[in-house]
Amino acid sequence: MRRLLPTIIVAGLLVATPKRPALAQDGGDVMDVRAAAYLRDQYLADLDTLHAKIVALATAIPADKYAWRPAPGVRSISEALMHVAGEWYYFAPMSVAAKAPADFGAPREALPRLEKIADKSLVLAELDKSWTHCKAQLSGVAPASLTGTYRPWNTTLPRAAFGMTGDLHEHLGQLIAYARSVGVAPPWSR
C-alpha cells in the first residue's frame, strides 16, 4: 500500500485538475474558439498598455526634440513614433486577421509617408487615430476567425500576435532610450 500511495495521489490530482481550454490542436496550427478569444483579449490588453506608455512618452518629450536622432541614418523620435502609428494601422490588426483603413494604402507607400509627420501635435493626433483604428479592428475580430494560420507571415495567428507585441515592446524600449537621451524620464517611472 505504501508503494501505491504516490501513484494514487498523482492519479487523483490528474483527475481533479480542471481542464483548461486547448491552446493548440493538430500540431499547433489550430486553436479552439475559447482559447482564441482569450488570446485576442490578452493581445488587446498588452497593446493597450503599450499605447498608454508610448503616448505618455510622446507627450512628455518636448516638441523641439522630435527631430533628435541618435546617429545619422537612424530614425528620429518623430519617425519612431510614426513607425509605431503605422504598425497600429497596419501590422497589429493584420496579425489577427483584421484590416488596415481603406484609405491607408499599401504599407510600402503609406509607412514612409507617415514617418514624414514631424510636428508634435500631428504626431500625437496620428498616434490617437491609429490606436483608435487598431483597437476597433481587434475588438471586432470574431474568435472563430482566429483559429487558423496567418498567411502573409505563414505562421499561426498566436505566433503572429506575439511577434507583433514583441516588436512593439522593442519600439517602446527604443523610445524610452530616446526620451532619456533628451533628458526625459518615462512618466510612469518618476
Explain what this protein looks like in three dimensions.
InterPro entries: DinB-like, DinB/YfiT-like. This is DinB-like domain protein. It comes from Gemmatirosa kalamazoonensis. By secondary structure, the protein is mainly α. It has a single domain, classed as Four Helix Bundle (Hemerythrin (Met), subunit A) (Up-down Bundle), CATH 1.20.120. The chain has six helices and two strands, in the order αααααββα. Strands 1-2 form a two-stranded antiparallel sheet. Strand 1 and strand 2 form a beta hairpin. Helix 3 packs parallel to helix 5. The radius of gyration is 21 Å and the shape is globular. The relative contact order is 0.18.
Break the fold down into its secondary structure elements and pairings.
Blueprint: H1 4-16, H2 33-60, H3 77-94, H4 107-114, H5 120-139, E1 149-150, E2 155-156, H6 157-181
Helix pairs in contact: 2-5, 2-6, 3-4, 3-5, 3-6
State the main characteristics.
single chain; 190 residues; DinB-like domain protein; Four Helix Bundle (Hemerythrin (Met), subunit A)
The CATH first-level class comes to Mainly Alpha
Separation of termini?
Answer: 61 Å
CATH superfamily, by name, is dinb family like domain
By DSSP (H or I, 4+ residues per run), the number of helices equals 6
Strand order of the largest sheet: 1-2
Give the domain tally.
1
- Mean pLDDT rating: 81
Tell me what the CATH architecture is.
Up-down Bundle
Q: Write the CATH fold name.
A: Four Helix Bundle (Hemerythrin (Met), subunit A)
Low-confidence stretches: 4-29
Class by helix and strand content? mainly alpha
What is the share of helical residues?
55-70%
Number of strands: 2
Protein name: DinB-like domain protein
Domain DinB-like: 47-175
InterPro entries: DinB-like, DinB/YfiT-like
